[in-house]
Task: structure prediction
Amino acid sequence: MRPGRYNADGEPTGYWDAIIGPGKPLDTDEYYIISSDTLVNLGANDPNVTTTGPATINPDTGEPWGMDFPVVTIRDFVEVQRALLESQGIESLHAVMGASMGALQAIEWASAYPERVERLIPVIGGGVADPWLLATLSAWAAPIRLDANWNEGDYYDGEPPTEGLKEALKLVTLNANHWQWANEAFNRDWADETRDPAQDINARYAIEQTLDDIAGARAKLSDANHLLYLVRANQAFMAGHGDSLEAGLAAIEAPTLMLYSENDLVFAPEGVRRTAELIEADGTEVTLETLEGNRGHLDGVVSIEQASETLREFLQ
Result:
C-alpha cells in the first residue's frame, strides 16, 4: 500500500492521495516524490509490490527463503532506499516523511544520514517500541504461529496459514482504530438482522463481520511470514543504536514536524512526545501537532488532509 497513486488515472489511490499531487501540500509540480516498497513488504502477493523477503526465491536453493531469510531491521529498509537514491544520483532529500512504520524509517533516515535529510516528518510514529507495543506486536503475530498450516514458516509448497493471517490482520485493524470509531460506526448491530448473537452461538455482531471482511481481503495479497518479519523489525527499531535511544535521536539535525493522534492505541502519544523531547534536547527544532478524529492511529492516514497547511508551510 503506497501513499500516492500508481497511475495518473487515479485507481487505485494511495492512503495519502489527499496531500500528494498537483497543488496539494506535497505538490508534484514542485517536488519529486519518491516512494519505494520495503524489504519484507506485507503485500508480497500484490502485483504492484516489489519486495524481497521469506516468500522470495533463495537463489542458492531455488526455493522460497521461508524462515531462513535473515532478520531485517528498519535500518536495513533505509539502506535499500539509500542504494536506490544513489543509483539515481540523488544525494540529499528535501524531506523524509512516513506514517506508522514509515515514520520509523523517516526517523532512521534523519538519524543515520543527517547530512542528507533537510526536513523530517514522522506521522503517527515514535522513537522506540515501548514494552506495551512490543507485546501488542507479539499478539499480532501469535495467530499465524498457532495456525497448523504455518508449519514453522515452511508452507510455500502447501496450504498457507490463511486463517492465522486473517486473525492477525483483524487484530492489526482493530488496534489501528479506536473504540470511538467502533462505537459510533457499529453500536451493537448484528451482522445478520435475522440472527441474534444472544440466541445463536454462531451468529455475529456487525463489527466482527466487518473486521473479518477487511482482514480476508487484505490476506489475499499478503504473506504470513512477511508479517512476522515486519513485527520483529518494528520491535527492534533503534536497537542498532545500542541501549541509547537518546543517542540515536540526538543525531537528528533536521527541523522536525511530528503529527500524531492523542487517541493512538499503537504508538502512545506519551512516546511520541518523549521522542520530540529527545530530538530537540540538543537544540533541533521540533514542532508537534495533533490530528483530530475518532480513528486513533489511522487518523494519520484517513485524516491527514487536516494538516495540509502545516505541511505546506513546513516544506516551504
